[in-house]
UniProtKB/TrEMBL annotation:
Residues 97-147 form the RING-type domain. The keyword Membrane applies. One of its GO terms (biological process) is ERAD pathway. It comes from Aphis glycines. One of its GO terms (cellular component) is endoplasmic reticulum membrane. Keywords: Membrane, Metal-binding, Transmembrane, Transmembrane helix, Zinc, Zinc-finger. It is found in: Membrane. One of its GO terms (molecular function) is ubiquitin protein ligase activity. It comes from the Eukaryota. The chain crosses the membrane at residues 12-39, 45-64, 173-195. This is RING-type domain-containing protein.
Length: 198
């Protein structure tokens, strides 16, 4: 049950940063098209605020995804159905979700979570919320039990859910840009210095 609460928290953080990024972007677009003049505000002020809001939305989105990825691995490894290095330490019963460790189908009078399930192409079945949290929030695109690749296109049939996947990919690209940007700029500056370019 703890893993579901953690996923809910990170999913809330994920959506919040998504909304902040969109709001910041629209404020910048409004400033660019001069809508701020209607409100008697300098466009540069709106542009600054929009950029700051968008930056912090994307920054905390990247940070939240990285922490969620670490937490997803730790929680799943603690349950024993998943290990980052190799084979799981426990075997998965057909009626158990490997992400949260709870029963999939709950009969009347039993304790558990009543929720729809989702079956991956490897025939392993999980709670729908758990496998979505594993794939979107935890950034794991493999089965939590057998490590087979998850087909995200099959999982997200609804076109309104696809922006969440695209936002996750954008955060990954930003991570690479932030990590490799200073190195690339240093190489360019070094080449300019060697070649005598100003």
């Amino acid at each position: 049950m703890l893993s579901r609460l953690v996923y809910k928290w990170f999913y809330f953080n994920y959506k919040l940063t998504y909304v902040l990024g969109i709001v910041g972007y629209f404020i910048m677009i409004a400033a660019f098209f001069g809508i701020s003049v209607v409100f008697n505000v300098n466009p540069a002020v709106w542009m600054d605020y929009g950029l700051i809001i968008m930056y912090y939305g994307l920054y905390f989105g990247v940070l939240g995804q990285d922490i969620a990825e670490i937490c997803a691995s730790k929680m799943a490894a603690h349950l024993g159905y998943y290990t980052p290095q190799g084979m799981p330490t426990r075997s998965l019963d057909k009626n158990i979700c490997a992400v949260c460790g709870n029963k999939l189908l709950v009969n009347a009078g039993e304790e558990g979570i009543i929720e729809s399930t989702f079956q991956l192409t490897c025939d392993h079945t999980f709670h729908e919320f758990c496998i979505r949290g594993w794939c979107i929030v935890g950034k794991k695109q493999t089965c939590p039990y057998c490590k087979e690749k998850v087909d995200l296109k099959r999982m997200f049939r609804n076109p309104w859910e696809k922006p969440h996947v695209l936002y996750g990919q954008l955060l990954d690209w930003l991570r690479w840009f932030v990590a490799w940007g200073p190195i690339i700029m240093s190489i360019i500056q070094f080449l300019n210095y060697i070649l005598g370019l100003k």
